[in-house]
Specification:
The protein is of the alpha+beta class and about 130 residues long. The protein has one domain (about 5-130). Helix content is about 15%, strand content about 35%. The protein has helices at about 15-25, 120-130; strands at about 5-10, 30-35, 50-55, 55-70, 75-80, 85-90, 95-100. Strand 4 (about 55-70) and strand 5 (about 75-80) form a beta hairpin. The longest helix is centred in the first third of the chain and has 9 residues, at about 15-25. The protein is globular. The mean pLDDT is about 90.
């Protein structure tokens, strides 16, 4: 089972905005994010995904293609330029990225299932605050 990571969709104004940013890199074959350090568990991430946090909820994932060191010593997180919607799951905001075990990752939305049928992030956050999910 692969290891995943989570990251806030910083500066995205909506999930559609995040999707548009990712898809704008399709002609390059990958989207890239910068991180200061190579994850120590990067070998376990083969086949894993970066799960995006938007409004305190996991909303989608982008498969991780690998890591590449930049000339300045930082690292690229290389991602498939796609946003795969997942069942919304509450997730606190954090700085940088964090690991996410496969058993804790939300499932992809099924065939014919729309994001509109998933729990809205604000509702998921409130239910989590109340200890109901």
């Amino acid at each position: 089972m692969p290891l995943h990571m989570t990251k806030i969709a910083f500066s995205a104004e909506s999930p559609a905005d995040l999707r548009a940013w990712l898809e704008s890199h399709a002609d390059l074959g990958e989207a890239r994010l910068t991180t200061r350090y190579l994850p120590k568990r990067q070998e376990e991430m083969a086949g894993g995904s970066l799960f995006w946090i938007y409004e305190h909820a996991l909303i989608g994932r982008s498969p991780i293609l690998g890591f590449e060191q930049r000339e300045d010593g930082r690292w690229w997180i290389r991602l498939a330029p796609t946003l795969i919607p997942v069942v919304t799951q509450p997730k606190r905001a954090h700085q940088g990225w964090r690991y996410l075990a496969d058993k804790d990752a939300p499932r992809d939305l099924g065939e014919g299932e729309s994001a509109g049928e998933a729990m809205p992030p604000a509702l998921a956050r409130e239910l989590a605050r109340l200890g109901l999910v």
